[in-house]
């Protein structure tokens, strides 16, 4: 293997698409089911404990407010502005702002962020598993095809270090027994 193809191989994180995408799907389904359970629990809690989840109630009775208006009849030395009392009714809002809606938006936003982080994590973690499996599979295919046997090489942080070590011992024994593979 030349240095150029080694460099290209090291930065190729999707080595075994089927395995890595299944790995990602399993992590994602686990996460999404956790989010759905969380949202369901929040909904149940808010509906059963907090008066239907209402954040606030609007008043239905009239409120007295004072409007500042110009006093057109004001003579010299009198106030130029006067305050007139008026009664107003607060409107009955139809936006259904409740605790669940507020929490739902926060949970969904954080869930999207976490799903992105899980995707990145699972690609890198599955690469540490798929890379060695790919190397082992390739070496075993070469052995089966009768091609020259080489030691299996994996990176330092990869998974399956013990398996590769045992297979390399087997390859060394096979190389010692077979004079034509040298």
Report on the structure:
It is a single chain. The chain has 182 residues and is mainly alpha-helical. 57% of the residues lie in helices and 9% in strands. It contains four helices and two strands; from the N terminus they run ααββαα. The chain has a two-stranded antiparallel sheet. Helix 2 (17-49) runs antiparallel to helix 3. The chain is rod-shaped, with a radius of gyration of 35 Å. The protein starts with a helix and ends in a 5-residue tail after the last helix. The mean pLDDT is 77.
Task: Give a short overview.
With about 180 residues, the chain is mainly alpha-helical.
Explain the layout of strands and helices.
Elements (H helix, E strand, L loop, with lengths): L2 H8 L6 H33 L13 E8 L10 E8 L10 H46 L16 H17 L5
Antiparallel strand pairs: 1-2
